[in-house]
Design goal:
The complex is a heterodimer of chains A (574) and B (271). Chain A is of the alpha+beta class. In chain A, α7 crosses α8 (212-232), α8 (212-232) runs antiparallel to α9 (242-251) and α9 runs antiparallel to α12. Chain B is mostly helical and 271 residues long. The two termini of chain B are 49 Å apart. Classes of the chains: A alpha+beta (574), B mainly alpha (271).
């Protein structure tokens, strides 16, 4: 007799509220507070009523003066509304990294480099006092449930930096939350009674969907602060005048697809073996009428084509790339022989995108382009299904097996992925030894990982384009070296909360128990060991680049941006 | 042209030019009185450069260039040094036990290097083609898991087949007990594992329907164990040659230094 199936209650959206301690009293109070008091509860569907959005997708936080609410460069999933008191945004110049709990790293000098010869610790994971005692300019304090980091010398900051105060009713953080971009400013509490409402991304999305005023307000902010500069930097619009660009910006629609918490979802799907393109949200379907070009602002999307009973991947595209231009340009030039979308575009994980409508493309953008910059006419997929255009068909360059492997494992997220060619790798572990020598005898990766054919992606931090590990770090210990730089962890401010360790979809972060110079475990007042998160830092402090790559005698290991498969294809052909 | 082919061409061209040059110089100047000193010092310099590659490996945190570049130099200089060695010996045989030991050390170091080069170029591809990538240090634990599973099938409390139990005791217990067929795997022969699988297949004639299912599972475990043995054999070969090459290099360097001391000590001063 077959085993009876395990029956579970289907998980619902609000099974886990943002804050389980939100009371009816809190919700009632918020319903009488702007902007919720101005919202029409009738416009919200029965499944997601306004009251439940407030109860489940929001939480009330209290801050004391100097406590950091958000840091520049962090990745957050929520927006904030000031309910009471004041907050202060740092405008210029930016705060020093040490004031934000980050490590002010630089290349090692000659002596420190040479000192690695005799200074290596015998015990693993030794954290010298000099690192732990780093004067960071910030301190942490434990509030009811979480750790808050506060600035120690607010008057000095006010003296040395241009800042602006924000008071009750003001929103902030919504652009970064919606577009999954790094926060652009640091904001800290400016009064001891600061009370803020934190709204997680899902709630903000629903509020925008059903409340016209909030949507208009956020769209306006988005267009003013983020869109104009983004469009100006997009090569497709470089021939437009300021007026034309304003017109385009006015017509642009923006949208999000997929799940913001894709890393957790991906882990679950990967474990159950059910990562399938057919299950990903469709942004544009093959055969659809081309409504506009899609500009990816954040996240990734899969370009696929119907094949038999399923979909085969042709390529994946990331931030800054465009989809649908070929079809729209073709139709603009061949009004008698128009074509529909040749391929599908599906969100992988979370995707934030802009859509420039076909009408605007035809009236403003396409006429501005020189003839040689227009894409070639579309050969219909039905005519030659096996030969998609070369700019689409990355599968021809790296091979179908490798492309599906990279896509299904979400490896395109890596900007410095450790790629090993198994045809050349002699398994000598020189790379691991080099890593250990460079990190005080502690290797920061595992020379093993998923593989397809001759390609192996080793278990090392990939320094992701979408660094989900950085979401939720309470002290800012995990951060980027610069806006496009390596993701590093400051051991001095890491509190061992495992937030990054749990978030990383690739299991590239390890928790270790730190020791002192004598090799004894570091413990807290309750005699519990002090845990720290560790991972590959791409040898950011060393000269010459990552030691693992330089140490490979057979050129079998490289650190590569897998968002651009041209370099992978070239490397594999070497 | 791939990078591998480019490296090969550049290396071979450099080696041919250096060889031709050395042979020409040898023909022209071999009659000089101090010629043995000249070739000896050149040989020592070559050996020194070859040896410091290992030092480079121990200092990965210093910006000393890519190990890959160092290895290319190491390989081609290694070939050229072998030629210098022959020139230094005047293409003859060494005399006396000290020189014979020194020459043997040189031959063994060069020979192990060439074996290592061959292994490095051939075995990784074979491992990748076979699949089932596994970390060398984890093989014993994985092998133990496979052995336990096989034992459970053949001898566990649910095992009721005397046919399978007997076959396990006679043939499979030895196979699962530790690494097997090193040389077969090294020369890419499947004969040993194939024979065992054929015997297992033959057992089906005497088995019940339930036993056949177990035989199928045992066959899968034999293949799994064979895969682990294959990886162990090839990965071990990729490591073992270095255990010959590096210690002998140090021995060679010590004997070489003693050789230099003796040459100067007994020659009445360098000329």
């Amino acid at each position: 007799m077959p085993d009876a199936p395990t029956i579970l209650e289907r998980p619902q959206r609000w099974d886990a509220a943002f804050d389980a301690n939100m009371t009816d009293e809190d919700v009632n109070r918020l319903l009488f507070t702007a902007p919720f008091s101005g919202m029409d509860a009738e416009k919200f569907p029965k499944r997601t009523p306004l009251r439940e959005i407030i109860r489940n997708d929001m939480r009330i936080l209290k801050f004391r003066k100097g406590e950091i609410i958000m840091r520049q460069g962090d990745y957050g999933t929520s927006a904030f509304l000031i309910l009471q008191g004041a907050a202060r945004v740092v405008l210029k110049p930016d705060l020093a990294p040490s004031l934000l709990g980050r490590q002010a790293t630089g290349k090692k000098g000659v002596f420190r480099t040479l000192a690695q010869l005799w200074n290596r610790s015998r015990a693993p994971e030794v954290l010298p006092r000099s690192i732990l005692g780093q004067s960071s300019g910030v301190s942490a304090r434990q509030n009811e449930n979480e750790t808050r980091v506060f600035l120690q010398d607010v008057p000095r900051i006010l003296d040395q930096h241009r800042t602006a105060q924000m008071t009750g009713g003001e929103f902030f953080g919504e652009i970064a939350a919606l577009s999954r971009m790094a926060r652009t400013s640091t904001i800290f509490a400016d009064s001891d009674d600061a009370e803020l409402l934190e709204i997680r991304w899902q709630g903000l999305r629903d509020l925008m969907k059903y409340d016209d005023a909030l949507r208009t307000h956020i769209n306006k902010i988005y267009r003013e602060r983020a869109l104009a500069s983004y469009l100006r930097a997009t090569p497709l619009f470089k021939y437009l005048s300021k007026e034309q660009l304003d017109h385009v910006a006015e017509a642009v629609e923006f949208s999000t697809f997929g799940d913001y918490d894709w890393s957790g979802e991906y882990k679950r799907l990967a474990q159950s073996g059910s990562v399938r393109p057919e299950k990903e949200p469709v942004i544009v379907g093959q055969g659809d009428y081309p409504n506009g070009i899609v500009l990816l602002r954040a996240g990734f999307a899969r370009v696929s084509q119907k094949f038999g009973g399923g979909e085969r991947t042709l390529n994946y595209i990331g931030a800054g790339q465009i989809f649908g231009l070929n079809e729209i340009a073709h139709n603009w030039r061949n009004k008698d022989a128009t074509t529909n979308m040749q391929f599908s575009l599906r969100a992988i994980g979370y995707t934030h995108l802009l859509i420039v409508p076909t009408r605007v493309m035809e009236d403003i953008v396409l006429p501005s382009l020189p003839k040689n910059e227009l894409p070639p006419p579309v050969a219909k997929a039905d005519d030659d299904i096996d030969s998609p255009p070369p700019e689409i068909a990355t599968r021809e360059k790296v091979g179908a097996e490798i492309l599906e492997f990279l896509t299904e494992n979400r490896f395109f997220n890596g900007t410095a992925t450790m790629v090993i060619d198994l045809d050349r790798c002699t398994r000598c572990d020189d790379c691991v030894r080099a890593c250990a020598s460079t990190h005080d005898n502690n290797p920061r990766f595992l020379r093993h990982g998923p593989s397809a054919g001759r390609l192996m992606i080793a278990n090392a931090c990939m320094h992701c384009a979408d660094p989900v590990c950085m979401i939720g770090c309470p002290t800012g210990a995990i951060h980027r070296e610069s806006f496009a730089g390596q993701v590093v962890i400051n051991p001095a401010t890491c509190i061992g909360c495992k937030s990054c360790f749990t978030n990383c979809p690739y299991d590239a972060i390890r928790m270790v128990e730190a020791r002192d110079e004598r090799g004894e475990f570091l413990v807290d007042q309750e005699m519990k060991p002090i845990a720290k998160a560790t991972k590959c830092d791409l040898c950011v402090e060393n000269h010459g680049g990552p030691a693992c790559e330089r140490a490979c005698p057979h050129g079998a290991l490289t650190r590569m941006n897998l968002n651009n498969l041209d370099s992978l294809s070239k490397w594999l052909k070497l | 042209m791939t990078r591998f082919h480019r490296q090969l061409c550049a290396g071979l061209i450099a080696l041919i030019i250096a060889t031709a040059g050395a042979l020409w110089l040898n023909a022209k100047y071999s009659a000089l009185a101090n010629y043995a000193y000249l070739t000896g010092w050149a040989l020592l310099a070559g050996m020194f450069v070859l040896t410091i590659y290992n030092v480079r490996k121990k200092l990965p945190f210093l910006p000393l260039g890519k190990s890959e570049t160092w290895l290319q130099i190491h390989i081609y200089l290694g070939f050229f040094t072998t030629l210098l060695f022959l020139i230094h010996l005047k293409f003859g045989l060494p005399h006396g036990w000290f020189e014979i030991v020194l020459a043997w050390l040189f031959v063994l170091v060069s020979g192990s290097g060439m074996v290592g080069l061959f292994f490095s170029r051939v075995l990784p591809r074979r491992l990748a083609t076979r699949g089932g990538e596994v970390i060398f240090e984890k093989i014993p634990a994985l092998r133990h898991g496979v052995k336990t599973a096989a034992e459970e099938l053949a001898l566990g409390k649910d095992a009721k087949s005397p046919v399978i139990a007997e076959f396990y005791a006679k043939r499979l217990a030895v196979f699962f007990s530790g690494p097997k067929n090193f040389w077969h795997h090294l020369v890419e022969s499947r004969r040993a594992a194939g024979a065992l699988l054929a015997e297992l297949e033959d057992l089906r004639r005497f088995a019940t329907e339930a036993d056949r299912e177990k035989i199928g599972k045992l066959e899968a475990l034999v293949r799994q164990k064979d895969g682990l043995d294959y990886h162990r054999a090839l990965q071990l070969a990729l490591k073992l040659w270095l255990f010959v090459h590096i210690p002998l290099t140090y021995g060679l360097m010590i004997f070489t230094i003693l050789h230099v001391v003796m040459v100067f000590g007994f020659s009445g001063g360098a000329r």
